[in-house]
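FYI - complex with zinc ion, inputs then prediction.
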Amino acid sequence: MTRALWFSVKVAVLVAIAWYLAEKQPGQVSLVWQGYRVDTSVGILLLAAGLVAVLVAILYRSWGGIKRTPGDIGRKLKANREKRGYRALTQGMVAVAAGEAVEAQRWARKADELLDAPPLTMLLSAQAAQLDGDDQAAKRYFTAMLERDETRFLGLRGLITQALRDGDEPAALEYARSAHTLKPNTPWVLETLFDLSEQAGDLEGAERAARDAAHGKLLPATEATRKHAVVLLERAYKSQRASDPAQTLKLVKQAHKAAPDLVPASVLLAELLVGSGRQGAAARMLEKAWAAAPHPALIAAYGPARPGKAGIEWLNQVGKLVAAAAKHPESLLALAEAALDAKLWGEARRHLGEAGEAGVTDRVCRLMARLEEAEHGDLDKAREWLMRAGEALPDPAWVCDSCGALAREWQPRCGACDAYDGLAWHTPPRVPLEAPVAGVVTQVSAEPAVLPAEPVEVLTNGEDAAPPAAGEAGPAPETAPAEPIPAPPVEEASKPEEARRATT
Ligand SMILES: [Zn+2]
């Protein structure tokens, strides 16, 4: 509009100048050209020249416009096509999110036709194929994505998922290794690489992945350190099987240092130290390990680290072992058991009473039964406690945090659900006895819950975990007057004086 107005003004000025020259400044001009002669005034000549210039300008502009038209139309068409393509892509992604396989595939085809953006359309096509259950097509798309630099990582991710879905772990591991080479600092790649390497028995590869994750702070610090420790322990077991004691010791030391609360590492380290004649070092290490994670297996390992100790001497040693966590239920039960072996009935009763305050468990009941029988020869009371044991709270056990299965021994993977480092030592939920998981046992079912015909003999012969009080044969001859122990909450009954009396 402004341009048109400006143009009109210019023409009007030109006409005005021509009129002025023609009317006010008369003068004649003659032109002779190719045998023609033109006589006119100066004004008219200028007007004609101006008009010719305007005409030429108009023609020139029109020609430029005509020349550009096909390009403009092409660009408009292309923009329109892209717009429709991206709309199809969006609709396809929405369909994938909604789980509509047919819709997703329809939009994927449309986006592929309309767009020149293979990374995006390939990914959508692959996802749509996966959704439709067409694994072969999905694999084809993901494999095609490996050809281009910008889509290679996406393709590898898709292929890893696809291989895991097909149960082809070796292929998944190869893809994970390639993905790790492309992007070494991607947390999910490191986690996948760790899991698959460990499963495939490539423990060194798994350890590298765990170490990279820890050093790069790519996983939460505690998680990365724990994984590193567990895989180091696995490597130690492997070296032990290969009869390489030096390497086993080196690896288990690293594992214990990384995770002092990893009980099986502490136990293996204690065995190796004792085996090489370093009982003192083993004992000191176990005392620290108890502070990190009190566990009955540590007491079993402590015996050989403090050889030749029995009775009160052994009780004192156990006192030293548990000193850093003296009020922990495991510590109280360890002390009670050692006191029973030392025939310090009052002391045993006191520790059992304190342990019972935290919860009357199966083990508390069985130790109480043993105490009643040993101290007073009261078989009825002992039987009563054994009856209670069946209904008491379960004792801590190795429980899988992923599936809840119980395991008798710690192992790197849960025997029921294969979760890595899933087993933790804590109180299990009550599990119905008739439904044990294959390869896994419930602690409660390991011993009869109902009193057998001759319970006391079974108990006194088989319950001792701590070294027996050698040299102090026979049941306690002199007993303090029997104190009534009410069945529910375990009470602190005996006094320390009685305990001393019982052994002197
Ligand atoms: Zn499990």
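The CA atoms of residues 353 and 481 lie 18 Å apart. The pocket of zinc ion is lined by residues 400, 402-403, 405, 414, 416-417, 419, 422 (CB under 6 Å).
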